[in-house]
Write a structure and sequence with these properties.
This protein is mostly helical. The longest helix has 44 residues, at 46-89. A hairpin with a 3-residue loop joins β1 and β2. The chain is 64% helix and 5% strand.
Length: 122
Amino acid sequence: MESDEEKSPQQLVVETIWTYTGWAVVIFACIGAGVFIGHVKWGDADILRGKVEQFEKQVLTLKNERETLNTRIAKLTQERDACQKSAAGAPPPAAGGAAPPGGAGAAPPGGGGAAPGGVTVE
């Protein structure tokens, strides 16, 4: 090969054009290969469209379930509030408490008597 000093300016321009043309061809070949591989692998994206539809149905189902649960929570909250209001309006139980059904000094089943402090004596 000739050295740079021996080449004419026209030859240097032609050599530079060929260098940049080679780079452009390589870049376009890489881009084209990427587009081709992408089209072969994903094509028209039929599988992805199917997955999108499946996920949209799943999201819709989950939204409906959430709405149903929120409705149930609201109804139960209303019932709880109604119960609390009715309990607040009821008279309180007697202060001394009522006697147990078996009488004040009835022995527990199994014999023995109740001593002060809740201890059962056999």
